Amino acid sequence: MEYMLFIATDTEPEPGVEQPGEIEAWVEEGDRRKIHKQGDRLRPPSDATTVRVRGGELLVTDGPFAEAKEWIAGYDIIECADLDEAIDFASRHPMAKFGRIEIRPMWPMD
Amino acid sequence: MPDVSEALAVAHASDWAKIVAGLIKVTGNWALAEDCAQDAFATALVRWRVDGVPPKPAAWLALTARNRAIDRLRRASSEASRMREVGIVHELENWGAAFSASDVDDERLRLIFTCCHPALPMPARVALTLRTVAGLTTGEIASAFLVSEATMAQRLVRARQKIENAGIPYRVPPAELLGERLNGVLAVLYLLFNEGYTTVRRNDLARSAIDLAASVVELMPREPEARSLLALMLLQHSRRDARIGSDGEVLTLEEQDRSLWDDSDIARGLATLASARARGSYAIQADIAACHAQATTADDTDWPRIVSLYDELLVLAPTPIIELNRAIAVGMADGPDAGLALLARLSASGRLAGYRLLPAARADFARRAGRTAEAAELYREAIALATSDDDQRLLRRRLASLEQ
What confidence score (pLDDT) does residue B195 get? Predict the structure, then answer.
């Protein structure tokens, strides 16, 4: 199954509380176990732009979906046998100790 | 001819989960498995009255459930899904032929662990365990939790969807996860027990929780915490008929008529506890319950031992509720003033602010120490904090007894 990990944090402004090299080690483990497909950091919500189209009109606003203390600092796409494997791998992410990681199953087009 | 309802009740208790688990394993479809098992039991109720109870009831039920599943899959399958369904039907045909109650124990465990997976919301874990493992109907679970049948049905549908969509595995967790996940299972069962036990009119939920815990013990005989929890439940459950006064109010241990305690539950609880040989929190709580169960009166209770058991429990779970219970035991062991001193300190810490049992306990000791005015004031404080009618009635009665 394919899952998206949302790496969320409420640390301002930089999420970088982990030790140098920790993320790289985690990604390497994912590559070795052949479960990590893709992932990256995201710039903070102050750099976000939100787009909507309502009644045919384009509305562009500054900022994220919702004003929340917590924001998404990165994402990863992983391919695991089941949720337990996804939980295990997510729990090893360095940010699991400081922020929170939401695991969402992908909903593929049939 | 054996009594059909009795034979069905026996078969339901021992075979429901096995049949459901077997069908889930082959079809991967929880709703189908539960519906077909339920249909099989409903069919048995009619058929067995006419034909008599079959020589192998479990095999009869499994085969009937399987045939129902095959019918439903054939009727429902579209062209697109036909290939997959043909495979499942073929497997089902083999499963039914091979069904024997003994080799599906692992399937039942798989079912319990999946129903209690921590990725499911707690109410869903409880509902799913009752529906899928214990075999209660959706209507029965709904009335036990005082929600409409539609709400409960929706909760079950969402839980089954999450199992499928989120990829919750259908298995007994591997060794490195087992301890943590087993604790999760036991927590679900204890919550279920307490739902049934604390609410007087839902004793059958407590009984279901005991039966489920007994299955876990049977399936995982080397897990001491499961045994301890079963012992704890049995010892608490032994008091069910004595807990309630003639006006429906909840009675304290001291006020209960101990001749109403269920001796067979106590004996079974003590034997289970003796075989557990564990020092986890359920074992310690069961030891405390055992001290009460073995005392002929409240005064005759081994209170010093209960104090030391609470000390042990506080190391594992340092919560103010346990401190409160320990202070009460100290008061019973060393006299009301010793209890009052500890309770006053707990009260001053503010950690149980708003909790009615703290002023209620202080009031009880003040009454014993002969300080009637102080006791009355504390009872009034507790009454103001009590939310349920039963609690208020109990406290009012004690307040009234001060004035006699």
Answer: 81
H/E element holding B77? none
Does residue A22 belong to any structural domain of this protein?
A: yes
> Using CA atoms, how far apart are residues B263 and B235, in angstroms rounded to an integer?
10
Closest to B229 (Cα-Cα) out of B173, B269, B178: B269
Range of the domain at A60: 2-105
Residue B173 shares a structural domain with residue B152: yes
User: Are A1 and B168 in contact (CB < 8 Å)?
Assistant: no
- Single-letter amino acid code for the residue at B316: L
What was the ipTM of the complex prediction?
A: 0.83
Is pLDDT above 80 for B168? yes
Number of domains forming the structure of chain B: 2
The answer to whether A83 contacts B168, with C-beta atoms less than 8 Å apart, is yes
CA distance A92 to chain B (A): 15
SS3 call for A41: strand
Distance from the A93 Cα atom to the nearest Cα atom in chain B, whole angstroms: 18
Per DSSP, helices labelled H in B199-318 are 203-219, 224-237, 263-276, 281-293, 303-316
% of chain B at pLDDT higher than 70: 93
As given in the structure block, the two tokens for residue B66 are 């399987």
CA distance, residue B35 to nearest chain A CA (Å): 26
Would an 8 Å CB–CB cutoff place B177 in contact with chain A?
yes
Instruction: Assess if residue A110 is contained within a domain.
Output: no
Helical segments of chain A, H only: 22-32, 83-91
Residue B107 is part of which domain span? 103-220
pLDDT band, residue B333 (cuts 50/70/90): very high
3-class DSSP state of B302: coil
Query: Are B110 and B64 members of one domain?
Result: no
Q: Closest chain A residue to B174 measured between Cα atoms? A: A84
Q: B39-65 burial string, b = 16+ CB within 10 Å, else e?
A: bbbebbeebbeeeebbeebbbbbbbbb
To probe the interface with A, which of B165, B177, B181 has the most A CB atoms within 10 Å?
B165
CATH number, residue A82? 3.30.70.1060
Among B45, B80, B99, the domain-final residue is B99
How far is the C-alpha of B37 from the C-alpha of B44, rounded, in Å?
A: 11
